[in-house]
Design brief:
By secondary structure, the chain is an alpha/beta fold. Strand 5 and strand 6 form a beta hairpin. This is tRNA 2-thiocytidine(32) synthetase TtcA. Keywords: Transferase.
Length: 251
């Protein structure tokens, strides 16, 4: 995927769901993975020509596993002139040493989000951008169906009333395959996830299931995606001009 295509898909989501307004200060959550670095590229580029003025800060929550070199991410942020903050925590120690969690993902996510929100507030941000892409949206819906028995997927924007922050997800129209292509084309400085359960979760199971469904039923991911965006899911914002299938479908 070329940079211009990334800008186009990201801007569509921002415009359709009104994710950015004049004067926003957006904290970009940077895990060090391909998705969050692609999001940083997208927002930093859009900032140069988007009609609404906004500021960016980048934040990484370090879980404290050790051997997590973030210097390449720091260099990228410096090149983009985006302030970068690393929040040091002991979340890894709490999960695996103190509590010895066998299924740590939910608690880890809660602790990470808490640390990220706190850092964003200290920096004066009013929004946090997550790098969830199209497959993340589909997988979340399937996880909800399989394990909770309900049709649900995260919203393009979510207001957190306890903090006053709004979470936005500008990459929901971007395919994971295109993120991978973008990472390779632009040599993104990806940092390996140090979590010991990475790749051994329910989400990883659903990711593999989705690939199998697509292989056996070509086009199923497109249909699942549109079932979500057209599904009137509770908590999703209304859009003034709904995009057509042709507009948001990847080429």
């Amino acid at each position: 995927m070329k940079l211009q295509r990334l800008y186009s898909l990201t801007r569509q989501a921002i415009d359709y769901y009104h994710l950015i307004e004049d004067g926003d200060h957006i904290a970009v959550g940077i895990s060090g993975g391909k998705d969050s670095l692609t999001l940083l590229y997208a927002l930093q580029g859009l900032k140069q020509f988007y009609p609404k003025q906004f500021e960016l800060s980048a934040i990484t929550v370090d879980l404290g596993f050790g051997d997590f070199d973030l210097s390449p991410v720091k260099e990228l942020c410096e090149r983009f002139s985006v302030p970068y903050t690393i929040v040091s925590t002991e979340i890894g120690k709490i999960l695996f040493d103190t509590r010895e969690e066998s299924n740590p993902c939910a608690l880890c996510a809660k602790l990470r989000k808490g640390a990220l929100n706190e850092a964003a507030i200290k920096l004066g941000c009013n929004k946090i951008a997550y790098a969830h892409h199209r497959e993340d949206l589909i997988e979340t819906m399937l996880l909800s169906l399989i394990y909770e028995g309900r049709f649900y997927a995260f919203s393009p924007s979510t207001y957190l009333d306890r903090t006053g922050l709004t979470v936005i997800r500008p990459m929901i129209y971007v395919k994971e395959a295109d993120v991978i292509g973008f990472k390779n084309k632009y040599n993104l400085p990806v940092c390996k996830n140090p979590c010991p359960v990475d790749g051994h979760t329910k989400r990883e199971y659903v990711k593999k299931l989705t690939k199998t469904l697509e292989r056996e039923n070509p086009g199923v991911k497109d249909r699942l995606f549109h079932a979500i965006v057209d599904g009137n899911i509770e908590g999703w914002p209304e859009i003034l001009s709904k995009p057509t299938t042709e507009v948001i479908k990847e080429s």
